Amino acid sequence: MAGKYQLLAGLCCAVIATGALAQSEAAGTAASDGLDEVEEVIVTAQRRAERLQDVPIAITVQSGEQLAKAGVTNLRDLTAVAPGVRIAGAGANTQPSIRGVQSQQTDPGNDPNVAVYIDGVYQANQISNSFDLPDVQQIEVLKGPQGTLFGRNATGGAIRVFTLDPVFTPTGRVSLDYGRFSDVVAKGYLSGPLVDGKLAGSLSVFRQDSDGYHRDIVTGRDDVGGIESTVVRAKLLAKPTESMQLLLTLGYMDRWDGDTTPYATIGGNTIARLFPGAVFAEKPYEFASSRDDFLDSTVHLASLKADFDFAAGTLSSVTAYNKTDAYYTQDGDASNLDLLFYGLNELQKDFSQELIFSSEKRGRFSAVAGLFYYHADGRYDPLDVLGSFAGPVPIFVWSKQVTEAYALFGEVNFDLTNRLSLTGGARYSDEKRTAHGTFQFGPGPEPDMPRLGSKSWDSFTPRVSLRYRFLEDDHLYVTYSEGFKSGGFNIAAADPTPFDPEELKAIEVGVKTSPARRLSANVSAFYYDYTDQQVMTVANNFNITANAASSELYGLDADLAARVTDAFTITAGLALLHAEYDRYPDAAVLEPLVSVACRCGNTNAVIDASGMTEPRSPKWTLGVTANYAHDFGFGPLELSATAYHSDEFYWDSNERIREPSYTTLSARASWQPRDSGFRVSLWGRNLTDERHSRAVFLLETYDGVSYARPRTYGVGVEYAF
Fold this sequence. Notes:
By secondary structure, the chain is mainly beta. The strands form 9 sheets. The chain has a 22-stranded antiparallel β-barrel. Strands 3-8-9-6-7 form a 5-stranded mixed sheet. Strands 16-41-40 form a 3-stranded antiparallel sheet, with no helix packed on it. The N and C termini lie far apart (60 Å).
């Protein structure tokens, strides 16, 4: 135990030393060095527009331009440019984690530990989070519990996505990319005034058609797992008066994805081995299935944001409605035999209303206060269990979980001196969840779903931060915060068992510094006390969540941005993480069957996992992006490359399924003819052709793995005005 605290103390000392070094270097740096400054970044992590360097929170920020250069095309790709963040998947679900805090619960109505927002609207459904990024202005990754201002189920942090708003100057952009696997991506964005100075609109359109990269060893097809994705987003911005602004957003996403569910067996471990004629895949990018595996999802989004400016501050209202309708399949034995097959019909409807008042700074004082309401209906409509293992007739599980949540929150910032600032805030949350469900044998109309249980929870999550400005642009901060994730029900089971909330207490020490105009560095050390941890187990071939563990997590994050020359810039991010179960004495895990002489599925076992590494938690990750831009006389040429390295980690709580360390490289070269709105690009992703897992799916019947895309490359053309 002493070693843990010694290491954390050492990390904190490193943070403080970085600040001292920055002060020393800045003292010897001329105010004007002939180079441009590192671009100033504005964030709204504290519900007001502030410079990134002024916010006492560990934040990774990526602009839309930076994401495009790094080859980030959807939320799952964010891992490569935000070390410490890992976005995995289980079937069609997106499961983000930050600093080892994560959830593997996938039932509709049960939210992840990392809150995802699009344009200020909370996105609870894990299928709707698998979205493409055609019109992104900026992404902010807030690390650590955000229990005050973004408190609903933000134990690990929050990912905030901002898309382009309408502008009053006519502007537009269209692009077309073609790449390996017959990947065609078309994007378009158009914005301009509808009534001069009063009304503006924008329209964003995205379309992708791509062949797959999996080989079906049953049929021999080598292009299985294609994607057909459509995104349409329309916005209308109205400014009736100088003090009032309205923004209406309508969004539509439709995605047919055969890329999310094909799984090869790990080591050939499948119960299908026991049956004659079984065919199963063991090689990467190969799979075998008795039926088609795919995701077919449709998402509708609508929101209205209203801002009212007063002398005392700004009152904002965000009203939103989301509907996700999805059907996806999963082979439960990863073979050509029809032993076990799942068909998951998911439907979720969300409504949210938030009111926020952000005061103008009056002398030394500023404040934020708000109210939040959330209602959700998430259901299996139904969950189909098919195949010979399901019995003589299929089983259909009809279930739903209804959520009603309220919250009151506020935060106050007070400048104690010209250099020392104190921030204090809290959030009170009240949440109720009710489970309904039944099951039937054989198909039929939707039955009545009786109420099976109801539970309520409330929480108080404070945040206190002290910030010291030791130079004009350099800050040292220490923050104490708490996070809360509500409990819920395992509605995939015929008898939906409840699980309780989890809590996280965090201490963070950090420094944000600009030792030179061309250099900025942000370093933070953290310690988490994680209790009543929600962990995933498997029972009767269903994923079940239970409160079974507690952990102590600690580590360090570092972000660096440097303008080396006028033409050459580098950004880098390093994350160090110690994530082990402090206490997990009765871990329900899966172990390969030992009663037979082959790897023929798994059996349930109970072990003491105390001291074992938490899933999906590499000890260190590193991301580096380099960009070079220069006009050689024939038009600007820009070269960019992003390298990402992940240390090894485990996918399960008993350290059975290991992911080896891997390194990926993406690159892009673009040229813009002089005095032209055209741009031509060559790009490549995973140029090292590293084989690494995107998701692992563990059942009693088999161990399955889905691999990320191999090397891809292509060409693109863009026209902007």
